[in-house]
Structures are given as C-alpha cells and as structure tokens.
Write a structure and sequence with these properties.
Layout: E1 33-38, E2 56-57, E3 60-61, H1 62-71, E4 76-83, H2 88-97, E5 103-107, H3 112-121, E6 137-140, H4 150-163, E7 165-171, E8 177-179, E9 185-188, E10 195-204, H5 205-214, H6 217-222, H7 226-234, E11 239-242, H8 253-267, E12 270-275, H9 280-291, E13 296-301, H10 306-310, E14 316-321, H11 328-339, E15 348-357, H12 363-381, E16 385-394, H13 401-419, E17 428-430
Parallel strand pairs: 1-4, 1-6, 4-5, 7-11, 12-13, 12-14, 14-15, 15-16, 16-17
Antiparallel strand pairs: 2-3, 6-10, 7-10, 8-9
C-alpha cells in the first residue's frame, strides 16, 4: 500500500522556531538526495496504546516535527515514510493537515530493517514498487528524532558522497558493560574509545540498496545498525561525523515532556510588541523588560507595518494599551492574525495588557467587555490563536506609576509567552 500527497498541495510552513534546517549547506543542487523514515514501531518502551511517533506534543504528532525538519531542507527532494497499514490513514491525515511536502508513504515491514528496505524499494528504479526518482544519496533517519539540523544532514550527506556511507556519532554518556549469563560483570568497555551511533545516517543509494538486497533473514529480524550492513555486505566503511547534542531520540514518556519544553523555549524567542505609544522611554522599557526574558523584540506602533509582521514568522504578540483600556486594538490584531491563516505548526500567542484607571472606571463597569473577550478568546483558539488578557489597575495620582505599570505588564506578558499554557487561554489576570 503506497500513497503520496499531491506535490502542489499547500505551501510549506514558514521557517519556524529553529527546529531543523536553515543556512548554507554546501550541497550542490545537482546532487539528488532523498530520505527514508522508518515509522512502523509500536513504542513499547514509551507505554500506552499510541506508538510514540504519533504521540501529541503541544497538540501536534511527534512525527510531524521530524518531517518539518526534513522538508525545510530544500535539497532533500523526496521523503519516504514507512508506516504500518493500520496507521496509514492516520499518517496520510497528518501529512495533509500539517501541509507536509515531498512526502510519500509506503507500508512498513515487521522489523526496522524491513521497513527501511520497503522505503528504499520506493526509490529503486529497477523495483516494481518504485514510484520515485532514484537518488544519488539517501538519508536514513528516525521518525522520533525531531531536532535534526541542516548542518548535520549536510555533513553526513557530503561524507556519504565521498566515502559511500556516513553516520552521526556522539560521545557515550554511560559506560557500556557486558554481563555474564549469571548476571555478573564480565567486561567493561573503555568509554573514551567508543561512541554512540546516532541518526541521521547517509549512503550512496547503490551501496545501501545492494546491502539490503543481500541481507540475511537474521540481520533483517534482529539487526538495527544500517552502517553495519553497508560494511558487512558491501565492504563500505562508514565515515563517522560528530553529531550535535540535540540528536537524541524520544524513547520514554519523560522524553515527550523534555521535547515539549525545548519547543516552548524555541518558539518563545521572538516577540512582536504592538503599542499605542511612540514614546522612546516606554519603547526602551518594553524592549529591555522583554529581552531580559531571552527574547528578540520587534516594536511596532498600532497599524504600522502590522500586516508585514502578521505574515512573518513571529508566533508571539504583546499588545500594550497605555492610553485607554479599550478592547478594540487587540480585537483588530486577533482578527488580522486569524485572517492570515496561521500555520498549523504552532499556535500563535497574543497577550493584551490593559491599564485601568480605577479612579475613573471601576472593574465592575468593564466586566461585560471582559466576558465578551473571554468568549472571543475561546472562539479564536479554534483558529490556532491563543489569547491572554492582563488588566493592571492604577491611579493617575503618581506620574511615575505608568513606567512601573508597563514594566509589570511586560514582565507578566513575557512569562505567559514563555509558558504558553493553553489552560490560561481566555483568562484575565488582574494585577
């Protein structure tokens, strides 16, 4: 069973959050490169009924993050995903929902090696199941390693082009020991002399395809290391390339929480501040307060070049209203964001900060508008936009109070964006 989405369907998502890709690769445009992702595992070590590659992280399946990292690399022409027949429809729906491009689905085998072989067959011109051009170099990567960067992919591809096979490695974290049959220590390896084999790996297509064609049933059933097959069956010694620390593999449930934390941190690194004032001291104060939180800040007065920002790659907005507590400015911003059809990859977070002069307007007078905004927030969430409100009560008696109010509001807004807690959507925090 083999499927592939239309090549012209949907624009690929924007360059998001640094989750793979970006930069000059040094890979010539004439070099044909494809990728194979085995995704037929059941995720026994993770526990639970859902295979780990389909487990949601911030509401999005894990495998979608990995596909995004690969599809952002323009010189990878085709991505073949091997998935079990019972999960084929779910995988096709993921590809469609998240607008993944250049993806072809094939049926996985009973083991990891058999799944990879099925993926390679889709690229082999002499095979009856072939449906894609045969590449010069093929990348093999795990569906549950979502943070692979373009420079690592380029390194293993370049090494494979020159040596026939290449793989990313990392220093061992723990010492490897060999136990005896009775459970006692038999041998301890020198950790400094050994390395952990990671993904991605890359091969000249002819090398790895010939290796799998010759592979024994025992290796197909019990083997896991692709580099070993290239060495055993094609006498091709792999070039080993130092990988980055973020090549780790999601294996246990705690890894899903770690992945969520990493993504939240990355997508909160840029904030657009939409302010109703152009006073230099306030803009400087806002930028300083938000940058303390580790962010890159773009300041934009209301209405000025807002459309350019909406169409950009920013996922975080802070709307500062110092002159009044009217809810109209954030409504306009939210409407603009929703109409811009935000990318389905990540939700957009909008924090609107209001300053209420408690001497002139009571909180009870504003409650009707507050409830309307809460209802609006629930509706806008359906369009992948998260809205938070911060209401700061003050009096006009102290002229210095405005600066402190802005500082306080910016601090709360930055904390909300860092947390991106969907449970707070539509809530109004009163300081």
């Amino acid at each position: 069973m083999e499927r592939g989405p239309k090549r012209d369907g949907g624009a690929p998502g924007p360059a998001e959050a640094g989750l793979g890709g970006g930069g000059e690769s040094g890979i010539p445009a004439t070099l044909a490169v494809a990728a194979v992702l085995p995704a037929g595992g059941c995720g026994e070590r993770l526990g639970g009924p859902t295979p780990k590659q389909f487990c949601p992280v911030l509401g999005r399946p894990l495998i979608s993050y990995t596909l995004q990292a690969l599809q952002r690399v323009s010189w990878i022409k085709d991505i073949v995903v091997a998935v079990t027949s019972e999960n084929m429809d779910m995988m096709a729906a993921i590809v469609q929902r998240y607008r993944h491009q250049r993806v072809t689905l094939v049926e996985a085998g009973a083991t990891r090696h058999r799944s990879i072989f099925n993926g390679l067959k889709a690229l082999a011109g002499d095979h009856p199941h072939s449906q894609l051009p045969t590449p010069t170099v093929v990348i093999i990567h795990d569906a549950v390693r979502p943070f692979v960067e373009e420079d690592v992919l380029a390194s293993v591809v370049a090494a494979a082009r020159d040596h026939g096979a290449a793989g990313a490695i990392r220093p061992l974290v723990s010492t490897v020991i060999t136990p005896s049959a009775d459970g006692c220590l038999e041998q301890s390896l020198d950790r400094a002399k050994h390395r952990a084999s990671e993904m991605p790996q890359a091969f000249l297509f002819d090398v790895i395809y010939r290796a799998y064609c010759q592979c024994s049933d025992h290796d197909m059933e019990f083997g896991t290391e692709c580099l070993h097959l290239a060495l055993k069956y094609c006498h091709t010694k792999a070039k080993l390339v130092d990988g980055s620390p973020d090549l780790w593999k999601v294996t246990y449930r705690r890894d899903l929480y770690a992945m969520e934390s990493i993504i939240k941190d990355k997508i909160s690194q840029q904030i657009c501040v939409v302010a109703d004032t152009e006073e230099d001291f306030l803009q400087g104060l806002l930028k300083k307060e938000l940058e303390v939180q580790g962010t890159s800040v773009t300041l934009c007065p209301n209405g000025q070049d807002l459309q350019k920002i909406i169409l950009g790659d920013c996922y975080n907005f802070v709307c500062i209203n110092t002159k009044n507590s009217d809810f109209q400015p954030p409504r306009q911003l939210l409407a603009g964001l929703a109409s811009a059809a935000p990318s389905p990859f990540y939700p957009i977070a909008v924090v609107s900060v209001y300053f209420l002069d408690s001497q002139n307007v009571s909180l009870s007078e504003k409650m009707k508008e507050v409830m309307e905004m809460k209802d609006f927030a629930k509706e806008i969430k359906k369009q992948n936009v998260f809205f938070y409100g911060v209401l700061i009560c003050f009096t006009q008696d102290n002229p210095q109070q405005l600066q402190e109010n802005v500082r306080q509001g910016a601090s709360i807004a930055a904390s909300l964006i860092k947390d991106r807690n969907a449970g707070l959507v539509g809530q109004l925090l009163i300081a």
